[in-house]
Specification:
This protein is of the alpha/beta class. The protein has a domain of 249 residues: Rossmann fold (3-Layer(aba) Sandwich), CATH 3.40.50.1110. Strands 1-3-2-4-5-7 form a 6-stranded mixed sheet, sandwiched between helices. A two-stranded antiparallel ribbon has the order 6-8. The protein has a two-stranded antiparallel sheet with strand order 9-10. Helix 7 links the parallel strand 2 and strand 3. The chain starts with a helix and ends in a 15-residue tail after the last helix.
């Protein structure tokens, strides 16, 4: 234990870069033996760092016999590392070392709503904005549609805004980072969320009759073992009940599972580097959790005469594994947020028919490309 204490700082510095590097090299989860070997290697590197870098810098040695030299050399090392880091960040790594196929799939990280900065409400602004401050698209004479949700509604909003801009509906985007549309639900690290939700639901309740699409990261907020899970589901039901009493048509949109092994475009890039087909890449769905979410949403909809639209099959396909691609594009731009390509697919295939619009060009998966 004394030995571990001596090298603890070096362990702290080295363990995460080593884990990231190994995950970069291998697309598959580590076996028990591989994890044990990785732990041994981490201890060995940490010891070498402590013995040949940390100790000489602290206590002096052949290379750094005086305090002045130690300060000088360590300053040069720190500045050199900082320069390398800044250069890599500005240059986005070493893209010339990657194939065009890898770069193309990594570009899917950019397949997100270009309206996020303008229309998606950041945490710092929540609780201070009124409904009138949110973005509205399309014609006032069209069917009124609202997307009410956390960040998982941003790309769906953008796909619907393309339809709205054709004059077929009026869309209001009411999405907020890390803030599910659940009345009275307080996120531990985000106390402004409850006030934001109350402001938005109150504003919608007093507004014109609309079709309100409610969406949230159900696989996160509604998961068993999640703190305040019951309060989350109760809050979703309160929001639905309030909006239904106000005469709105409420549609609960189903959830979709996270890709737990890091950002999906990165995983696809690893598949390409290892010579595997990204069209065959899929990831597991927690079927028990998916079923629980489905039951909760369906029951809430039934109790308040709302509608429920499952999205899991449209996004993931109809198996126990979730596909990774739709029309040649990653379904997520990160771990769990729909890409614009996937959002267009969902809007065109599921949402527009549900609100009485079919065959709209703006909802085609390739629209805007």
């Amino acid at each position: 234990m004394v030995f571990v204490g001596l090298i603890s700082y070096s362990l702290y510095l080295w363990h995460w870069p080593i884990i990231v590097f190994v995950r970069h090299l291998s697309p598959d989860p580590l076996t028990t033996l591989q994890a044990a070997l990785l732990a041994i290697a981490t201890f060995a590197i940490a010891y070498a760092s402590w013995r040949y870098v940390e100790q000489p810098l602290r206590l002096g040695g052949v290379l750094w016999p005086t305090s002045r030299l130690r300060v000088r050399y360590s300053s040069v090392i720190v500045c050199s590392l900082a320069f390398m880091g800044i250069t890599l960040d500005i240059g986005n790594g070493f893209p010339w070392l990657q194939s065009k196929a890898v770069l193309a799939v990594v570009d899917d990280e950019g397949d997100r709503s270009p309206l996020r900065r303008r229309c998606h409400i950041a945490r710092a602004d929540q609780g201070r904005r009124a409904l009138a401050d949110t973005c509205v698209f399309g014609s006032a004479s069209g069917q009124h549609v609202v997307v009410l949700g956390d960040s998982h509604g941003a790309e769906l909003s953008y796909a619907l805004s393309e339809v709205a801009n054709e004059g077929l509906l009026q869309l209001r985007q009411v999405t907020a980072s890390g803030c599910p549309p659940a009345l009275g639900f307080t996120v531990d690290d985000h106390p402004k969320c409850a006030r934001h939700t109350q402001n938005m639901v109150d504003g919608l309740a007093d507004g014109p009759r609309s079709t309100i699409l409610i969406t949230a990261h159900y696989f996160e907020w509604g998961a068993p073992g999640r703190p305040h899970r019951d309060a989350f589901w109760l809050g979703i039901e309160k929001s639905v009940a309030t909006l239904r009493r106000s005469g709105h048509d409420v549609i609960l949109l189903g959830g979709w599972p996270p890709h737990t092994n890091g950002p999906l475009p990165h995983a696809l890039a690893r598949e390409i580097r290892f010579g595997r087909s990204i069209e065959d890449y899929s990831f597991p769905i927690d079927q028990s959790l998916a079923s629980s979410i489905d039951d909760n949403l369906r029951q809430i909809a039934e109790r308040h005469h709302a509608r429920y639209l499952p999205l899991l099959e449209a996004i993931c396909g109809g198996s126990s594994q979730c596909r990774s691609m739709i029309h040649g594009q990653a379904i997520y731009f990160d771990r769990d947020h729909l890409s614009v390509s996937a959002a267009r697919q969902v809007v065109g295939d599921i949402i527009l028919p549900a609100i009485g619009l079919r065959g709209v060009a703006g909802a085609h998966p390739s629209a805007g490309k």
